[in-house]
Amino acid sequence: MVIGRFRKLLHILLHRLIYNLTHFRLYSRLMICYTLIFLLVAYVFAFAATRYYIQYTTVKQLEQSRNALNAVCNYYEIKQTELSDIILPFYQTYKSDFYLDSMFRSPTDEEYYDPLKKMRIFEVLQEIAERDGDIEEILLYKDINESRFVYKRKSKMFEIVGQDYPFFNIMADWKFGRITTGTQMTGGNSSVKNKNVYGIGGVLGLDNETSVKGKFLIAFNTEAIKSVYQGYSGNYGRFILASITGDVIFDSDGDYNGEKLPYINMLLAGKDSASIDGQQCYIQTIVGQKASYIGVNTVPKKALGDSNIPLLIYGTFTLMAIICVALYMTGGHFISRRVKEIGLAMKRVGSNNLSYRIPILKQSDEFGEIAVKFNEMCNELQKTIDLEYISEIKKKNAELESLQAGINPHFLYNTLEVIRVKAVDAGNDDVAGMIVDLANLYRAMVKNGTFIPIRNEINICDIYIDIFSYHYENSLDYETDIDPQVMKFGIPKNLLHPIIENYFVHGIKNKANDNRFSIHGFLTNEDICFVFEDNGRGIDKNQLDEIRSSMEAAKLKVEAGYGLLNVQQRIRLIYGEPYGITLESEENNVTRITVLIKAMTCEELEASLKSPQKH
Description:
The chain folds into three domains: 238 residues, Beta-Lactamase, CATH 3.30.450.20; 119 residues, no CATH class; 165 residues, Heat Shock Protein 90 (2-Layer Sandwich). It is 50% helix and 20% strand.
């Protein structure tokens, strides 16, 4: 139930995020996009830095553990090497007066029970124990009667022990060579009880005969080995010394003392990592060939490294990202304020307030250049409009000029709005190009007479489409195909581009990537036909019928909007019927607007206005 509520909440948050992203202004979406890119790059670097740190610390810590393992193995090697020096008193017969030799030869234990002889044997064993401070016990085994003797250093006692005493079962079965045992617990006296010791020994033949009389075993305390590896700061993981057969000599965790090492074969195979006791571990080994042992260091992979360091790295990069995002948003606020100022100016000019000018600030940047150019265009537009009205107000075509002069400059706002959005990206080349196109468009629109060559009208259309192409970039594909024979004829100025404006305002699919718009012009008998076709939103049937009815009525009113009805009125006024607009559309599929006018030159059109016409 909790999971279901969490999923529902996550779905709502995701839906709101998508909705907000799709309704933000372009510069806000760009800011969010750049912020996400920066965060992505920052966290990629954080991930790389963390990974490098983990690898570096892993290698370094394993190297420290390797040094500790070397020290442990060297210590054990020294014990093996120095054994012959430690037991030298066994062979200095002048000290034992042959009592030790007699004890091993005798089928009875009378030497042990003779106080004098026992004292002499005790002195020899004590001298051996004093040669190495790690010696806990010295064990002697007589082959002739299987007697077991133990010298205990801590209690300074030499005594006979039972068959269950540690290590004697190994000594009894040993035939020749050096004896190496794993760790076992000492026993028999409370002062040395519960101590872990490991044994190194051999066979004894105390005269020139080759037969074996008995065995000895030196029991060393494992605490010395523990102190060796603990002396290293980088003693990570577990340290084990074991014989080749798997007898555990030393285990830093103490779990395998007195037992066989269960994964000895895997360690001898030389693997550098494996699963041990349910954990994935790094494995380091040192094989002592001379003493037939193996030193092992196993380190759980999750135990290496410092978990706080990755958090510190990610935290640092997160803080940097937050600071950069804050600075970016602050800069975006100032840019947004300049853009809104330009947008406000366009709205005022679009509402016929041609006297409004954008305040020019001292700093020189792209927005300042836009403001200067905008003010220059408004000055020129105001001047040209004044001259046009003064010179044309007395002409015979006052009704036509009145209708044409009533062009509401709202398309100026629609065009410059595109520039405002695009300017956020601060692309100087794009902004400069749009300004040049806009200047050329208005110069072409406000100059010349009532009628212009079709090639000039097509040029105005191309400029108008180019301006919108900056906004839609790769999502718009348009084509202009005009028969060269058509170009020499005349046309009422600004007759065609309202149809193009109608497409960009009402027809284009803003979120689509395959918008297409085409203009075809050709001669048909003595008429000129223009076909405008697009794959935009189209018009539903009810609205289409309403538009067709309005165009058929074609009531000529100056206050009529600057759109299809305005174009229809002007065509009927100049050319009469049956000329005009034909509209076809399928919703979300295709819209086709056909404009039919008579093929006439500019001179013929001017002359037609000077004489009464019957349409």
